[in-house]
Structure formats: C-alpha cells, structure tokens
Amino acid sequence: MKSTETETMLAYIETFFRQAGAHDLDHILRVTRICEEIGRVEGADMRVLIPAALFHDIARPIEDETGIPHQEEGARIAEDYLRKAGYDAERIAKIVHAIHTHRFSTGPEPETLEAQILSDADKLDAMGAVGIARTFLQAGEHGDGIEGAVEHIHEKLLKLKGLMYTGTAAEIAEKRHALLQEFVERLEEETGSGKNTPPWNTP
Predict the structure, then answer these.
(1) Which residues, 6+ apart, have CB-to-CB distance to 71 below 8 Å?
(2) Does residue 107 lie within any of the structural domains?
(3) What pLDDT digit, counting tens, does each position of 183-198 carry?
(4) pLDDT for 10-63, tens place per residue?
(5) Which CATH number belongs to the domain containing residue 116 in this structure?
(6) How many domains does the chain have?
(7) N or C: which end of the chain has fewer CB within 10 A?
(8) H-type helices in 85-127, by residue range?
(9) Do residues 44 and 126 make contact, with C-beta atoms less than 8 angstroms apart?
(10) Inside any domain, residue 79
C-alpha cells in the first residue's frame, strides 16, 4: 500500500478525534501496526487490511454522542470515503466487512482473513500492558474506580486469549494474557479484593 495513500487516509481520520481516550487515534495506530505485523505473517491483502484498521474506530466519537454503533457508522464512512477516492470496488466491500465485524462482542462473525486479523488486533490492544492502561483510562472516563476496572478485566479481558482467529495473534495473546493475569493477581493481593472479610474486621 502506498505511503501517500495511507497518509491521506490518516489525515482524514484525524479530523474525527478531538481528545485522547481509550478509543482514540493512538488506539487506531496501534491496531494498525498489529494488523501489519500479523498480516505479513498470515499473507493478508494489505490494501484491504490497513484501510480497515485505520477506519475501524473512526466513528467512536459519533457513537459516544449519538449511540449509533461505531462499527456500522464507521463502515459507512469508510465506504463513502474510499468510493470517492476511486478505491477498488471489490476491496471496498472487504474493508467494509472487516470494519462491520471487528467488534467481537456484537457480531456478526468476520468471514475473511483480513476481517479476522482486524478483530484479533483490536482484541490484542485490550490485553497486556496497553490493555491495562486503557482499562483504567476507560474507568476514569466512566467515573469508575479500581474496583470497576478490575471487574472489566475479569468480565472481558481475561477471556480474550481464547477468542483469537489467527495463529499469529494467538501467540501474541499468550504473552499479553500472562501479564494481564499477573497484574490482576498482584492488584487484588495489594487491595484485598475478593477476600470475604475486610481487614478491619479480622479477629
């Protein structure tokens, strides 16, 4: 994929983001780098995968304001942009599919290699050290504290390792999951989370 083409897309995508957050431009860039890493190993079409990664969360700010699912609005925005840019129609359809299916918790299932890689990369950015940082950033955005962040890790993040589609992503997930697990155990040890009796009531 031509770098000038990527830079033009990125410049357009940047206009949708006004502030940092758990699902900001930095998240998009990290997911794109992960997609590139996995895609080269798995033999993906980069002219499908990279635009899909760049556009996958473009509508997050819109969802926050309107409630419209970002994967649906993001797919629409990407399709409109790419058609106007004269992008190949067959690739546009694959890009739209990847964006529409990247959100693992809502379905539908990604059916192409590129869509599966995007879904994997998005999940991987919710794991490991970055995943921990994003969890607490998101907890702050929602007015939650440590307890809410830990609950999110248990309910969602610790389950991601077994949801990878590609072998390459599964290998990366093993390391990130291990760090996530160790962090939660240490945090619960230090905060006393999960213990039946509060320390001030201990005989």
Answers:
(1) 56, 59, 99, 100, 101, 102, 103, 106
(2) yes
(3) 999 998 998 865 543 4
(4) 999 999 987 655 567 999 999 999 999 999 999 999 999 999 999 999 998 898
(5) 1.10.3210.10
(6) 1
(7) C
(8) 89-101, 113-124
(9) no
(10) yes
> Does residue 192 sit in helix, strand or coil?
coil
Asked if residue 200 belongs to a domain, the reply is no
Distance CA 68, CA 52 (A): 19
Report d(CA 195, CA 140) in Å as an integer. Answer: 25
Name the residue range of residue 71's domain. Answer: 3-191
CA distances from 67 to 58, 95, 108 (A): 14, 23, 19
Nearest-CA neighbor of 32 among 54, 5, 7?
Answer: 54
Q: pTM score, two decimals?
A: 0.89
End-to-end Cα distance, the chain: 66
Burial of 195 (0-12, 13-18, 19+ CB in 10 A): exposed
How many Cα atoms are found within 13 Å in the side-chain-facing hemisphere of 43? 0
Beta strands in 16-95 (DSSP E): none
Is residue 198, in this structure, part of any structural domain at all?
A: no
Burial class (CB in 10 A: 0-12, 13-18, 19+), 89: exposed
